[in-house]
Design brief:
This protein is α+β, with helices and mostly antiparallel strands. The chain folds into 2 domains: 174 residues, Aminopeptidase (3-Layer(aba) Sandwich); 35 residues. Helices cover 47% and strands 19% of the residues. It contains 7 helices and 7 strands, in the order βααβββαβαβααβα. It has a 7-stranded mixed sheet with strand order 1-2-3-4-5-7-6, sandwiched between helices. α3 crosses α4. It is elongated. The termini are far apart.
């Protein structure tokens, strides 16, 4: 079984039949990890599909395989790719990574100026986030929207979060800041020019040294 056996696409109304199955697997996965994610109802998941704010993966035989959806916070200034889940029978083929890449692309298309963030305890998710350009940040750099933090109430570690004044918890906070990435991209040409200048300067210096040696040799003769 390979990734070619799956169809990863933006979910639509024709996929609402999978909503209950998706919610059940989200709950089971959270229980298995010993951590939690905000519990979502089948209606909530269905609405994400209808709004075009979700990505679904289906096996070529039509079986549901994976899912992830977009949430927006702070009036669209922040976006989270939430509820990433893969059916256990389809794990170990890179499906989670493929879904994460697709939902990231969808988020950048729909909300090009928004900061995309995530809270996770999973090393695999952290690695994928890093590949996409996320950076580890403090909780203070995330959305302060109370509705977002209320979603943590269903996590077994919620008491830890509140006892620390929402400054940190068991999850690692990661953030993709498009403005920061743009700034880095804009600085690249300057760095390339500096590199070229240094190479040219070095070449000129070597040429001068070579000419000086030739003159010295000429004088000796």
């Amino acid at each position: 079984m390979t990734l070619q056996d799956f169809d990863i696409k933006v979910a639509t109304g024709q996929h609402v039949e999978y909503a209950q199955q998706i919610c059940d697997e989200m709950a089971e996965s959270a229980k298995a990890r010993g951590t939690g994610i905000a519990r979502r109802s089948p209606e909530y998941v269905s609405n994400k599909m209808l709004e075009g704010k979700a990505v679904i993966a289906l096996h070529k035989d039509g079986t549901w395989a994976g899912f992830c959806y977009i949430e927006t916070w702070s009036h669209g200034d922040f976006v989270a790719n939430s509820g990433l889940v893969v059916d256990p029978q389809f794990r170990k083929v890179g499906l989670a990574k493929a879904i994460k890449h697709r939902i990231f692309e969808l988020s950048r298309t729909k909300y090009p100026d928004a900061k995309i963030f995530g809270l996770t305890t999973g090393l695999a998710v952290m690695k994928i986030n890093s590949e996409l350009g996320y950076e580890p940040v403090t909780y203070s750099e995330l959305t302060q929207d109370e509705d977002f933090w209320a979603g943590c109430k269903s996590c077994v570690n919620f008491d830890i979060l509140t006892s620390k004044g929402r400054k940190n918890c068991m999850c690692t906070a990661m953030l993709f800041d498009p403005a920061e990435k743009q700034k880095i991209e804009e600085e690249k040409p300057d760095k390339e020019e500096d590199k070229i200048h240094k190479i040219t300067h070095k070449a000129t210096l070597l040429e001068r040294i070579e000419n000086a040696i030739k003159r010295t040799i000429g004088q000796d003769h």
